[in-house]
Amino acid sequence: MLIFEHSKPQRRAAAQAPLTHASMNGLPERFRRTSATGLPEVSELQAVRHYTRLSQKNFSIDTQFYPLGSCTMKYNPRGANAMAMLPGFLGRHPYAPEAFSQGILSTLFELQQMLEDVTGMRGVSLTPMAGAQGEFAGVAMIRAYHAARGDTARTEIIVPDAAHGTNPATATMCGYAVREIPTDADGDVDLAALRLAVGPHTAGIMLTNPSTLGVFDRRIKEIAGLVHEAGGLLYYDGANLNAILGKVRPGDMGFDVIHMNLHKTFSTPHGGGGPGAGAVGVSQRLLPFLPVPLVAHEGERYRLLDEQDRPQSIGRLSAFMGNVGVLLRAYVYMRMLGREGMSRVADFATLNANYLAKRLAAAGFTLAYPQRRATHEFIVTLKREARETGVTAMDYAKRLLDFGIHAPTTYFPLLVPECLLIEPTETEAKEALDGFVDAMAAIRAEAASDPAKIKGAPYTQPNRRFDEVRAAREPDVRWRPAV
Amino acid sequence: MLIFEHSKPQRRAAAQAPLTHASMNGLPERFRRTSATGLPEVSELQAVRHYTRLSQKNFSIDTQFYPLGSCTMKYNPRGANAMAMLPGFLGRHPYAPEAFSQGILSTLFELQQMLEDVTGMRGVSLTPMAGAQGEFAGVAMIRAYHAARGDTARTEIIVPDAAHGTNPATATMCGYAVREIPTDADGDVDLAALRLAVGPHTAGIMLTNPSTLGVFDRRIKEIAGLVHEAGGLLYYDGANLNAILGKVRPGDMGFDVIHMNLHKTFSTPHGGGGPGAGAVGVSQRLLPFLPVPLVAHEGERYRLLDEQDRPQSIGRLSAFMGNVGVLLRAYVYMRMLGREGMSRVADFATLNANYLAKRLAAAGFTLAYPQRRATHEFIVTLKREARETGVTAMDYAKRLLDFGIHAPTTYFPLLVPECLLIEPTETEAKEALDGFVDAMAAIRAEAASDPAKIKGAPYTQPNRRFDEVRAAREPDVRWRPAV
Amino acid sequence: MPFIPHTQDEIDAMLAVIGAPDIESLFDDIPAALRSGPLKTVPDALSEMQVGRLMQSRAAPDAGALNFIGAGAYEHHIPAAVWDIATRGEFYSAYTPYQAEASQGTLQLIYEFQTMLTGLTGLEVSNASLYDGASALAEAVLMAVRLNRKSRSRRVLVPASVHPAYRATAHAIVHAQGIELIELPIDPAVGRVDPAALAAYDAEDITALVVPQPNFYGVLEEVDALTDWAAAHNALLIAVVNPLTLAVLTPPGEWGAAGADIAVGDGQPLGAPLSSGGPYYGFMCTRMAHVRQMPGRLVGRSIDADGKPGFVLTLQAREQHIRRSKATSNICTNQGLVVTASTIHMAILGPDGLARVAAASYANTHALAEKLRPLGVEPVFAGDYFHEVALRLPVANAAPVLERMAAEGVLGGYELGRIGWPDAVLVCATETKTEEDLQRYVDTLARALRS
Amino acid sequence: MPFIPHTQDEIDAMLAVIGAPDIESLFDDIPAALRSGPLKTVPDALSEMQVGRLMQSRAAPDAGALNFIGAGAYEHHIPAAVWDIATRGEFYSAYTPYQAEASQGTLQLIYEFQTMLTGLTGLEVSNASLYDGASALAEAVLMAVRLNRKSRSRRVLVPASVHPAYRATAHAIVHAQGIELIELPIDPAVGRVDPAALAAYDAEDITALVVPQPNFYGVLEEVDALTDWAAAHNALLIAVVNPLTLAVLTPPGEWGAAGADIAVGDGQPLGAPLSSGGPYYGFMCTRMAHVRQMPGRLVGRSIDADGKPGFVLTLQAREQHIRRSKATSNICTNQGLVVTASTIHMAILGPDGLARVAAASYANTHALAEKLRPLGVEPVFAGDYFHEVALRLPVANAAPVLERMAAEGVLGGYELGRIGWPDAVLVCATETKTEEDLQRYVDTLARALRS
């Protein structure tokens, strides 16, 4: 039932708005709304009950194991939420004067510094509101850098075929052409292809390392050398930073710019699709171009730097200073982990992934890169299973839901057929991993004996499998009352 | 799965305790524990996931309609929770000095006054921690009153047969014998029986009005006269106060003492079985005996009165000042309702009950007191249905769960066979009531066609019906690891 | 109409079904003479926003002090997850789990709670909670009187080292049943029960002996000897314990040769905020042989019609709603939500976490006492203490010193002058206190003593 | 090891399965020369308790002021239920609902959100959110350029009355694609778009016209005339609106004869706390005909294998994970949790509640402006304003006056000196302000002007 179906004309949650309806005498008629808004009219209890029950229809980390590759679905500490929701933080207006800003600004300044430290970059801007906006900021800085040097011939961004879709989409938004290069048999960047691709038209390359194939590109220094020699810059997509936190720093690998997904590596909540935070870090040469505002520490005071302080900045990406509430959660998380906790993230994310990969292989599943060490994630390809039984990666994914386990990422990266990209994260216990292996093995057995059953899955969720084609063909994207 | 089954030796939620283990060098060996506590060793995520999932196995007001007679399961405003959990309230030590107490004391003082106002009593003590403790306080004051007058012959408390079990249990705790009197055919106290029962041995009578039969005893003044003439006092069980809030005051009916269930009438949460709050109010003659502490307003300051200020007090019922957090929620609720909101509670609780009673009667169900006006609750008797189909009140109750509706109170009061005591409360919308009628009618139809199905209900809950006899015969009341 | 969903159309339709002209007529059973006039004290309604601002203004002035008071209520860190989960609607707004099939969340949680409490106390069975520690002691006394058929005296020995409010509460609740609580004096040199005073009752009929650990003064009692005395004299042994300390102290079930018969206490240190004294919860554990005399709710594991395990309220024949005037107690509603929080708290902290909290509290209190010696501040008692200590200030009257400290935002402890030690303060420094906090106490007290 | 559940036994067992001697060896693909040394800036770990105290010390100094600043972020009451429910683990810790069957909670909620936003804006389709109002404007400009095939200019008119940060953001995001944002001046007497300035573009190829309502100065634009101008000149009309005001103001879908093509804005006034500027959310609504050029996620209702209705992400072919370099935008993560809160907020407030909030904010701001006249404070513009007003103080420079007010705990408004009006302040008094608050503003300003 939709909230609108609980609605009755003139029903109200009367404690929640001013008790009387103030007059707007002075407001000319021509500005006044005469049509209905269609908003629901329900009691407070009805709203609470409706949305509490809706919430119960979701999978979430707090209720299920979520081995979703490339998404880093780790535990989101409740303490980080509680501290970010302190009234002093929630109530502060973004234009509050400095005297009412030192608490938040000092915190954000320290966050900038800690993120510089873990990424090996020289400067960080916290303002991008998600990974994709961080990517935009990064590529825009690359563009600004070349422009500032008068180097206008660079029109291309190189992107490996395994990259996240946001990478090419971002390059386009920044006015670049996208040049895709292939991956070699070991899952690394195809160096020969890269050599052919780079040149005076190369603005830069966007890479993830470890890549979305779950392997660490061992020749990263060589790649950096090739691109830099050609005058291009290296962009690091931080989606997989969890794999290497405290182990190797993108700055040390030779990257010029990085975005971090604080909602992955630093465990701010995914929230059903955001808000994220996509802080960007840069090397020395890109420092002048960082998006504003930045937080500066001047003597005893902290203050925001804006366009006037930073004339070469690529500018402003949001009205204020980004998703501050998310930044606070990341700060709290980093302080609770501390120096040694950073590399433990990579340690145990990697231990979990390698253990799970070995156990799945032992259970008969095919790893996409069995010759490689898994990083924090790895790929199983169900190509053989799909051919033999007709049961596809999607079928496995849906059937896993019946075992109380969220599906891994399916059909990404695009170059591995029938793939499941599996990332257990460091916060899951061995029992959860063993349970996943058991579920996968059980589905495998079912696939042999009763493939139709798997095709019909899930059975235990509020809905069976959806007709997505119909949804796209006849879009029903808002409720309208029956006439 | 139990939390203990997630436990592994040395697993820890490391952010939640001091980071190092301090030395207790000075503690002599003989005091030190050597055995294991058996507490679970789990990660923070495991605990969060376990208890979040457990919570989803509960019915609750926030998720279901809960027409539980005599329990007043109304909406518990989330705002009351938020305000009671303000850090200033949570952090205050009960022995904090006056300078750090004026906020809470002024609030509790106003709560005392508002409760006096709505009950028509002369004084209120907030200290009892639940209805039953309020009852104890009330009967103890009756005892103290008689004792103070040297009237030592009064050894009996009169209790109607429809009373809550706490009433006779309380009288026993206070050292009284219990004399039960019957109810007449209209659901009122049997006056003839009362006349026979009262006398110089009568310490008092414990009444609920409206009674647990869901009717208002119209001869309450006559009852009060009879008891008072015999030298006894009248105790009002406030469980049903929701029915008459702002309409008629126990003090005006002639009661000498009342307890209020703030977790019913004033909508503090039931919490799966408490904490409640059972404030007591008294007439003039019982004022000296109120339990301590009380809050006094002296000039500009508020302070607690203790045994020294109140030498005739029945004393102290808890270490500190009762369930203050619950009292705060009740205070917030009362302020949001305000003067006019009080009587609206009774208005709409009564409207809902009478509507539901009429509709159920029209659907073929038998009301226990069809000749009477329902109050905020009413009784359906399924005696005929049980005889004809074998489907009992308990079977209806269990089957209702499958319709997403909590069972009404069953088999109480004890004198109505196969009864359901139904209290919809004022916060439920007409649709919820109509849905209840539809569910009851559907069960009735099922009872005719397939009674075995109902006997097997519920089917949609985590468990089917339990073997309660076995549970009591071989009590398994704690988990022990398999050896 | 806050919280009332009815529209005028619905009201009209419902009245039509009822056959009543208006809502007022639904109250026609109430004699006109009794009908209330307008309320006098309840003010006009406020919106949630308005009450929110009011309550903030009430909460603010009581906040902000650095607290060193214990005396039965202890400041400990509570993980954010604890109350986040406990206040989820499904726990917060659920009723007592009488309908077991629709209450497995609460029921399983209580079963886990019972298991945890038996583990901490070293006893065999725990109920689902009582109101608080003080009233739990009263219930324990009543239970002991029911249990001890060998004793006819209804006399219970209660040391003066039991929390004074606990003693007052127990008296208020039990005295109407002819039960006498006899105060057992302490040895003023060491601050614990005087063995000579106890020996005075060697030949008497005593129904039960109460033993606190740590006692009100923070001192550790010689629990083994006391327990053995009770066993030797046909008295039941009622332990009153701080459950947090049981992470590191010998549990009542292991006291002496036979162990305590009943252990009670306040669960507050295990996840309940100070909150001006409540809601906390009382707990009670005992031997399985005594279970049918135990008051309060009890959850048991059973199986359902499909043979699937699950949880139910059990042994309800002890309770008031079944047994009425013959019940073990009149208790009905208890402290469910606090128990919910406490169970989550214990699960998150675990045995090692609780031991660390206890040890840090022990170490902080001892460190503070040491730091105060140069000011001429000394422990009142020579007995070993745990995480609370009675300190004698170098003044005749401690109260004004505490007042001056409070004016600087430091709550220096519980005034022992309230119970006869005018120069003494009961001080507690839990794991929440840092080195800087302890130093602030020292500096503030030094100033307060000077002025 | 905070948040890591592994015991040493488990680590050993897992390494044995992997066949690795230790965890360190799992990183042997990383060239040794690249391995990090110890971190320098990240401090040692703190416990939750320690960080809690630290964060309280950070939050406290920024709190406690009485705020009259608006300027794109508005203080409104948010019912306690809103974030209680939004931060339930099932919403808070869920991923983007790609697996529809396991995400019906989030998906249905977004479908309801989309319906509410189309209702408020009077348009046909809403996406599931963008980052904030400013970046939503940028996305709207990009979308308009894609949509308007009749226009070749890639020139978009943006009035100077659009929030300056929105204009800066839009420029930063769109300029690399060769799009020019042309500033359209306002009439300084009335504070809204100068019709004469617009007329100057009558003969030009303009891709889109942006129209704010209310505008940055709180003034109401003549939206009908502007919308009709756009329609007459083959320009798309992009509305930038405060969604709360749409409870009482003509919705963009009804502006002029044809309505706006795209409406964007910031959802903050509908349930997001001020929180130093975020997280808020951007919204975007448009005509159904334009849906395939709309960026961001979209939820549709469909049926499952059993014919049961439910909800899925739909029209994903617009998005980056499918369409990569040809996507409508690179947006992926948006502001889901804030949308969750906002949907609950709108459901609780309802049409009447939002209208009351808007009306009270209107009335309070107008009342404050009137109360200030005796101090010589006058509106800068003659145009009708809604719940925000530019006021000219009787001084050359308003900044020091605001500073003196802040020192008394009153944030007197946004300094318009930042954008060229040194004697002026942009003031907003929402429904959160009482009579006493308004009087406090007056009194504080009076003192600040005198000193």
UniProtKB/TrEMBL annotation, chains A, B:
First-tier enzyme category under EC: oxidoreductase
Keyword Membrane: no
Cofactor: pyridoxal 5'-phosphate
Gene3D superfamilies on file: 6.20.440.10, Aspartate Aminotransferase, domain 1, Type I PLP-dependent aspartate aminotransferase-like (Major domain)
An annotated GO BP: glycine decarboxylation via glycine cleavage system
Glycine dehydrogenase C-terminal domain mapped to chain residues: 347-448
Catalytic activities: N(6)-[(R)-lipoyl]-L-lysyl-[glycine-cleavage complex H protein] + glycine + H(+) = N(6)-[(R)-S(8)-aminomethyldihydrolipoyl]-L-lysyl-[glycine-cleavage complex H protein] + CO2
Positions bearing N6-(pyridoxal phosphate)lysine: K264
A single GO cellular-component term on record: cytosol
Signal peptide positions (record): none
Role: The glycine cleavage system catalyzes the degradation of glycine. The P protein binds the alpha-amino group of glycine through its pyridoxal phosphate cofactor; CO(2) is released and the remaining methylamine moiety is then transferred to the lipoamide cofactor of the H protein.
Protein name stated in the entry: Probable glycine dehydrogenase (decarboxylating) subunit 2
TrEMBL record, chains C, D:
Gene behind this protein: gcvPA
EC number of this enzyme: 1.4.4.2
Stated family: Belongs to the GcvP family. N-terminal subunit subfamily.
Subunit structure: The glycine cleavage system is composed of four proteins: P, T, L and H. In this organism, the P 'protein' is a heterodimer of two subunits.
Domain of life: Bacteria
NCBIfam families hit by this protein: PRK00451.1 (NF001696)
UniProt GO molecular function: glycine dehydrogenase (decarboxylating) activity
Function: The glycine cleavage system catalyzes the degradation of glycine. The P protein binds the alpha-amino group of glycine through its pyridoxal phosphate cofactor; CO(2) is released and the remaining methylamine moiety is then transferred to the lipoamide cofactor of the H protein.
UniProt name for this protein: Probable glycine dehydrogenase (decarboxylating) subunit 1
Lineage: Bacteria, Pseudomonadati, Pseudomonadota, Gammaproteobacteria, Chromatiales
